[in-house]
Amino acid sequence: MTEERTSTSADAGAAAESSAWSSKPEVDRKRPRSAPSLGLRGTLLFLWRQLTSMQTALILLMLLAIAAVPGSLYPQRSVNPTLTEQFLEENGRWGEILDTLGFFDVFSSTWFSAIYLLLFISLIGCIVPRVGVHLRQLRARPPRTPSRLTRFTGYTRIELGRSGDRGADAPTVADDLIERARRSLRRSRYRTEIREEKGARSVSAERGLLRESGNLTFHIALVGVLICIAGGQLTSYRGQITVIEGDGFANSLTQYDSFESGAWFDETEMPDFRFTLEDFRATYVQPGEGGSVGEPRSFEADVEVSTPGQAQLSKTVQVNKPLHVKGASMYLLGNGYAPAVTVTDPEGNVVAEGPVITVPMGDTGYTSQLVIKAPDARPEQTAVVGFFLPTGTIDEQGPHSLYPDSLDPQLAVTVHQGDLGMDSGIPQNAYEVDLSTLTPVVEEDGAPVLVRLYPGQEFALPDGTTLSFDGLRRYAAFDIAHNPFEHWILLSALVAVGGLILSLFVPRRRVWVRVRETADGTVLEVAGLARSDDPALEDDVRALASSLTEAQDGTSDDPHDPDQERPARATQHSSEGSAQ
């Protein structure tokens, strides 16, 4: 006994010294293996499955929405390059960082395009397998009736008493109930299948496949929207023009003030049309009327449109009511004043003449900046800089307008001479001038000459230069856009909305009716199953069971026949189940 204990203790010590994890020495001597490598093919397959999952598609869709936010917060070069450059000048280093990150060209940036393409690939990867599965479901028979219906929604069991003798050729109660159930479910737009079971018959019904069809339609239409947007970006163009009353515009590249187009844009396919701005009207809130004084009420531009092979049309363009011609749409963007000014140099030469487009400075009175450049003036080049005031006054605040309508129009300008820098070959902004290289025309006391003109007046400067305010006209700024995919984008968006409505409001259901003949009579079982939350399913199942039993009770050939037994008992059992 002592020897056995000693041997056991020795074995235990040896086991402790070896720090064994198993009683099998051959296992103990093996080194633990690392996880098997996926390999290149396995890794690519794993990444593809992750990318094409619905969760990834939803995340990418959310990222795309977030990535589009900077496009509405910061000025975009494609929309307003002048405002973009102004933002960069005002924000210094911070503006340079944002520019490097592409925040001023969001929708053409690398990171936005990457999200866009990944979402596109993810959606296609999600849709293609689901389409195949759904097509097979549409062709498949309704699923078989489960053996136990008690665990499903609205389970109802009704025991019907034995009926009288129906004759050899008469259908049984079970056959009658099954046929009634099939017809009732078909009227409710169910796909039905009668199945023969051991000792029973059943109807298997299914409805709501349109829900999945709507879901797939939504995602396919969403892919269509992405394709159309990408196609529009590649083939569309957009340009801005400014037209003065009485002047016209022909749709050609040389006529645009600014123009941008997609990479696949073909200049030869530009729609051929022209128009003339006949009249521009603007109305504003006047004193005593409701609203803020000077607030705009309406802007209307009357144009005469000509297209080859068609009669000339008279149209009125308004804000949010564009003009549509074949292949292009014209939107009213802005407006302003164009005073007609004539500038004569000291040698008597007319160096500038006609209406000059002024730029509103943003106040409610429409105070507008005026710049006239006369590079042909002699003996020195001349620039006229100042303000146009629709309803003008000059006080301690300087020249400004009190009301946006032209109730008291006037010019308040100064004249400068020197080198305008227009011979350097560097493009300049027509509405800006660098005064640091110019010298103002001054009075005898050395003060700059301030010229204030009303319509019809002329002013002669000490050096012989003369200015005259000859009249006043309005101008309108238009945005002309051409996108061959815009109708397809609208159609795809409408289809997507329709598919989304179907996927949200069409319930996916399965309903089973089983009838079993027993020695004591007939047993009817009805139950249903919902693919998603469907609170009305339970009531519908019970209503179906009730309608079947009521119809069966009313099939007696003669209610007064003593040989015919009435239903012995009718008991109802219900069980609330759910689809997992």
Concise description?
The chain is an alpha+beta fold and 580 residues long.
Commentary on this structure:
With 580 residues, this protein is of the alpha+beta class. The protein is 31% helix and 31% strand. It has 5 domains: 47-138, no CATH class; 142-207 and 508-575, 2-Layer Sandwich (Double Stranded RNA Binding Domain), CATH 3.30.160; 209-233 and 489-506; 234-334 and 479-488, no CATH class; 337-475, no CATH class. The protein has helices at 2-18, 25-28, 39-51, 54-67, 69-73, 81-100, 110-139, 173-187, 209-235, 486-505, 537-553, and strands spanning 153-161, 191-197, 200-207, 237-244, 248-250, 258-261, 274-284, 296-306, 313-318, 323-325, 328-344, 350-355, 359-360, 368-374, 381-389, 392-395, 398-401, 410-418, 438-440, 451-453, 458-460, 466-482, 509-518, 521-530, 572-575. Strands 4, 6, 10, 11, 12, 21 and 22 form a 7-stranded antiparallel β-sheet that branches. A 6-stranded antiparallel β-sheet has the order 2-3-23-24-1-25, with helices on one face. α4 packs antiparallel against α7.
Observed structural traits:
about 575 residues, alpha+beta, Double Stranded RNA Binding Domain, 5 domains, 7-stranded antiparallel sheet, 6-stranded antiparallel sheet, 11 helices, 25 strands, about 30% helix, disordered C terminus
